[in-house]
Amino acid sequence: MKTVIIEDEPLAARDLKKLIQQADPQLEIEAVLPGLQAARNWFATHTEPDLLFMDIQLSDGVSFELFNMVRLECPVIFTTAYNEYAIRAFKVNSIDYLLKPIDENELVTALEKFKKLRQQNNLPELKQQLQSLLQDLPLASPAKKYKERLMAHYRNTLVPVQTDQISCLMKEELIYLLTFDNQRMISEFETLEEAEHVLNPSSFFRANRQYIIHMNSIENIRHGFNGKIIVKLKNPISMEIDISREKAASFKDWIN
Q1: Which of 12, 22, 27, 121 has the smallest CB count inside 10 Å?
Q2: Which residues belong to any copy of the Response regulatory domain (predicted)?
């Protein structure tokens, strides 16, 4: 059997993929799609899977909107962090959902329910329940919620770090968090793209391939050669970071 994951948070997608592989190694994950548009493009050129995992609230809309974009008849297991109204609807309509952070036992139970329905040939009934749910739920896109704290490794432990205490994120061999009081910790991110996706863009800016900087960490700005901008961070970090000519205009918009 094949499945597809639609999840806009890279860390959540990675964790869900790992849990699915542990719960059922025979369930092949065909694709991990980061949003509605990516899903629309994928389904335009691929047949639908046996099972679909969908986050409810995506960065480019509500996942229910996908059913208005493409014809899907496969069963769905939804995931959600805080949409209580949707959770109540799922319970009424017997649709499976997983509340984040996803519990491994709940995932196993959801997969067992799917397999039972499949064996009993009750998937058409599940489709009808889904259609009823879609009619009852509003499709207004909620505001995207960004992380207010990140987990980091510090002295052999994991500690929460408030995002307003982070001066910058730096990529070396690992992704490091540098705090305003000059603490340096290893983050749980594998790439800066993962961090960029969950940080509030009103506070954080992706300066280049190596750094994401917090607005409050900036001491001064000056122009460099070839249209570059050079940003100096405040003490005690006190480093200079180049912003390329291509990103200069968006940086000026951000800082203003």
Answers
A1: 121
A2: 2-115
